[in-house]
Amino acid sequence: MQTVLLTALASAALAANALLARHAISEDLLDPASFASLRAVSAAVVLAFLVKRRAPAVAAGTRPSRDFVAAAALAVVLLLFSYAYVTLDAGSGALILFAAAQLTMFAGALAGHRQRVNVAELVGYALVVAGLIYLVTASDTAPPVVAAIAMGAAGIGAGVHSLRVGVRGDALEATSRNMTLAVVPVLAIHVIVASTALVTLPGVLIAVGAGALMTAGGLAAWFAVLPGLGALPTAIGRIAVPFVAVLGGIALLGEEPTTSLFVAALVLLGGALVAAIGRTRRIRDS
After folding, report:
1. Could you give the CA distance from residue 232 to residue 157 in angstroms, rounded to a whole number?
2. Whether 272 contacts 124, CB under 8 Å
3. Distance (Å, whole) CA 36 – CA 42
4. Domain span including residue 112
5. CA 158 – CA 65 distance, rounded (Å)
6. In the prediction, which pLDDT does 121 show?
7. Contacts of 66 (CB under 8 A, 6+ apart)
């Protein structure tokens, strides 16, 4: 029961990032670069605290090496996620991010391990692609092209980061170190565009909450339950993130619940579930 609750909490927290970013940026409470910077710094501080509190200090020679590729991917996620939400709805953005991340992880797994996939996985990922295409082309859900591309690139970055962290023994510590490294390019971009900064106290509080509570707290909860989850429950937990973001955008931000949005979400998330079931069967039979 505790695992289920933690998984639900982690999914809700990670989904809340989309809602908070969309609200703060669309309501002119904070500019995208400031949101990304505050979120990155607060997440890095909390993650470092959690890693240090969880276990005794590790000798310098035994710590995992710095992963600059993963850190760069994380910086891309933080920045483009914020800029995409200037015009994207929370639900559409979360679906694009999820689809791009899933497809990137699938491609990376194939390239890295030369795995043979089964029919269910192929059908599932074909549905993910179909749902994504429908989402960005349907007349009543089609997002601005630049914003959709930005969020798609953020999703690719999220997928790359997940693949890189997946090969580490301690995902929480690896993510903490990557987040700390990612702060540097994120702050550098912030300095470059400082002349366009828009900062209000509510916006600052939202961004810090998104970083410290939703990002760091959500990831900590997720990594805590991940070792005890099977492949299918893990996939369901991930699928819940964009699903909650879609519902939250409608209920809390007043986004329009169009038929096309629900069709796209159903096809895309259903495809991810089918692919996860296929992967579970392949692992079980291997």
Report:
1. 23
2. yes
3. 10
4. 2-285
5. 20
6. 92
7. 177, 181
Taking the C-alpha atoms of residue 40 and residue 133, their distance in angstroms, rounded to an integer, is: 30
Alpha helices in the chain (DSSP H): 2-26, 32-54, 68-84, 90-113, 119-137, 145-166, 171-192, 201-209, 218-225, 231-253, 259-285
Residues 179 and 40: beta-carbon distance below 8 Å: yes
Structure tokens at 65: 């090496």
When divided into structural domains, the chain yields a total of 1
For residues 283 and 246, what is the distance between their CA atoms, to the nearest angstrom? 31
Name the one residue in this structure whose structure tokens are 């601005």.
Answer: 144
Amino acid type, 171: A
Give the other-Cβ count within 10 Å of 59's Cβ: 7
Token couple for 53: 């509190």
Distance CA 58, CA 264 (A): 46
pLDDT of 59 = 45
- Which amino acid is residue 71, in one-letter code? A
Please check whether residue 96 is in contact with residue 148, taking contact to mean a CB–CB distance below 8 angstroms.
yes
Cα–Cα distance for residue pair 95/251, rounded to 1 Å: 17
Model confidence over 49-83: pLDDT tens digits?
Answer: 999 987 655 544 456 678 999 999 999 999 999 99
- Dist. CA 133–CA 88, nearest whole Å: 16
pLDDT beyond 60 at 137: yes
